[in-house]
Amino acid sequence: MSHPLQVAIEAARGAIRALPSTDEPLQRMTERGIDRGKYDAALPIREKLLPIADFLDPFSATDQSARFNEIPRPVVNSIVGTLDQIKNIAEQMLTKCQRQTSNLVPPSYGNSELMMARHVETLHGQIYSELNNLKPVSRISTSVQSPGSITNARGDADIVQTYDVALSFAGEDREYVDEVARILKTQGVNVFYDKFETVELWGCNLADHLGEVYGKRSQFVVIFISTHYPLKGWPRHERQSAQARAIRENKIVLLPARFDDTEIEGLPSSTAYIDLRKTSPRELAELIQRKLRK
């Protein structure tokens, strides 16, 4: 018998995959009893659900019941509850988008589609934080050159956390960066952002740990350049660690994003960058994901 968590993953994933695509023929939509106008209005919800299905796909490739048996029951129940919410939202999309064929008015969102989409985004973040460490195969991180494992004092091998992207910024620019980080996380990107790492960083030698993260364990490092950035010690350490790796491995590691035209030591003025004066946090998050897929 499959583990309850495996069953919940399959149910949520299946409900999302059952939703019509955006280019579904009108005749097919009509045959399914779906009002095209209502469905188009609900597309923001579908767009938030699809990355969840993508994230769950690796769990569906093989039965993970043996691994799930190691998870404490209260944690399993919490994850299953979140997955059930996601499944219900996907199924309700079809119910709420039904065509009216009688005097009985079908249920609808009542113009609350965007609110529901934001709720789905929150659920995605919950599922990501609960399941990402158990994911059999990373959708993006497999391309990261991992240092493999380290050995602790007992001689046991410990898995080293790697990241798709690490964010380097001055505290004065946190508002923008925070939004980018949260969007990336909800989209399944393994991002290093200090607020997500409070427990991991607690008690660490930050100079050594951040040097490892920015210099060895992240595929890319986005540096958020502003007048404040070169004046800060930790961002300087993060950038220098990433630059050393770029020189050592002869590859692109640093991805500059500029709030202004401040010059950065060691960064050639000819280096291509993203102008944040013309780019929203969501647009930057999308660009980062495109870079990771290259």
Characterise the protein shown here.
- The chain is an alpha/beta fold.
- The protein has helices at 4-17, 26-31, 36-41, 43-61, 65-68, 73-96, 113-131, 174-186, 198-201, 206-215, 233-249, 281-293; strands at 149-151, 157-159, 163-168, 191-192, 218-225, 254-258, 274-275.
- The two termini are 40 Å apart.
- Strand 3, helix 8 and strand 4 form a beta-alpha-beta unit.
- The protein has two domains: 4-137, no CATH class; 143-293, Toll/interleukin-1 receptor homology (TIR) domain (Rossmann fold).
- 30% of the residues are buried.
CATH top level class name of the largest domain: Alpha Beta
The computed structural class is: alpha/beta
Principal-axis shape: globular
Helicity level: 40-55%
Low-confidence stretches: 137-159
Number of alpha- plus pi-helical segments: 12
Distance between the termini: 40 Å
Number of strands: 7
Strand order of the largest sheet: 4-3-5-6-7
- Beta-strand content estimate: 5-15%
Secondary-structure element series: HHHHHHHEEEHEHHEHEEH
**CATH topology-level name of the largest domain:** Rossmann fold
Biggest β-sheet strands, sense, barrel: 5 strands, parallel
What's the quaternary structure here?
single chain
Q: CATH superfamily name of the largest domain? A: Toll/interleukin-1 receptor homology (TIR) domain
Task: Output the radius of gyration.
Answer: 22 Å
CATH architecture of the largest domain: 3-Layer(aba) Sandwich
- Overall pLDDT score: 81
